[in-house]
UniProtKB/TrEMBL annotation:
Main subcellular location of this protein, as a coarse class: membrane
SUPFAM superfamilies, per database record: MFS general substrate transporter (SSF103473)
TM segment ranges: 28-53, 73-97, 109-132, 210-229
PANTHER family the record matches: PROTEIN SPINSTER HOMOLOG 1-LIKE, SPINSTER
GO cellular component, one term: membrane
Protein name: Protein spinster homolog 1-like
Topology within the bilayer: Multi-pass membrane protein
Subcellular location: Membrane
Domain of life: Eukaryota
InterPro entries tied to this protein: MFS_spinster-like, MFS_trans_sf
UniProt lineage: Eukaryota, Metazoa, Chordata, Craniata, Vertebrata
Keyword Transport in annotation: yes
Protein keywords: Membrane, Transmembrane, Transmembrane helix, Transport
Length: 252
């Protein structure tokens, strides 16, 4: 009898949690999946562009700073670290400033960052064989844009989810990011890469570029989901505030 009551209580709790997440925050679902798509694009760019750079590097001029030859990997890692830090800082500053004037500033900022990253990334891919240095500049700018969404996504969760569901919401974000970024990039893109080489051997010289064109598409999907988030975020924030302002709200 006790086991049946415990199972019933657990079932009710899980049902209530799912209801809270979907009823109070449609923007949570859209923003988390959008962040997963953005993470897919970011991780894919970091992994596959490095493969392309390694292939192209030997065909291009060397770079000398203070009389020393600088390897492409040094420039790549340095640019990646600096761009991510700059993107997070810029995203935090812009979000905090614009949120005061526009409650939809966070998802709009995420969408704009992804939409700006798409042409920059495509230009870097097409220019890689023509001008290695120019391609790296565009990559640096695109990585800044891809990193703008790190803090605003957390702000969306904090304002559109009940306080008792923060742990669940952030766990959902981590799981979606892991599935789409880690498994998606390492498994899915590698599977497509092998299929391309088998189905069309003449594409073997440019198969990496073909794979890299999938990444901007995922960034576009993420931007669309963040724009959808901007449609719901104000309504979801009002629902949470109304619920929290009710006298003695019963939180499950």
């Amino acid at each position: 009898m006790r086991n049946e009551n415990q199972e019933r209580e657990m079932c009710c709790l899980v049902t209530q949690i799912i209801y809270d997440l979907f009823h109070f925050s449609r923007s949570l679902i859209c923003s988390v999946v959008g962040f997963g798509a953005a993470s897919f694009a970011t991780k894919g760019a970091f992994v596959w562009i490095q493969i392309l750079m390694k292939r192209v590097y030997n065909e291009q001029e060397r770079y000398y700073i203070l009389g020393r030859n600088i390897e492409y990997s040094t420039l790549y890692e340095l640019g990646k670290c600096v761009s991510v830090v700059l993107g997070i800082v810029l995203g935090t500053v812009i979000s905090s400033i614009r949120r005061k004037a526009n409650r939809r500033a966070d998802p709009i900022l995420c969408a704009i960052g992804l939409l700006l990253a798409i042409p920059l990334m495509c230009l870097s891919i097409f220019l890689m064989r023509m001008s290695f240095f120019t391609a790296q500049v565009f990559l640096f700018l695109s990585w800044i844009c891809l990193s703008l969404n790190q803090v605003p996504v957390n702000e969306i969760i904090l304002t559109t989810v009940l306080p008792t569901r923060f742990g669940w919401a952030f766990s959902e974000k981590s799981v979606v990011e892991s599935i789409m970024a880690d498994k998606g990039v390492t498994k899915l893109l590698h599977w497509i890469f092998e299929r391309l080489n088998r189905a069309a051997p003449y594409l073997s010289q440019n198969s990496t570029e073909v794979i890299l064109l999938i990444i901007p598409f995922m960034a576009f999907v993420g931007a669309g989901l963040f724009l959808l988030t901007s449609k719901y975020i104000e309504e979801d924030e009002k629902k949470v505030k109304q619920f929290m302002n009710t006298p003695d709200p019963v939180l499950p």
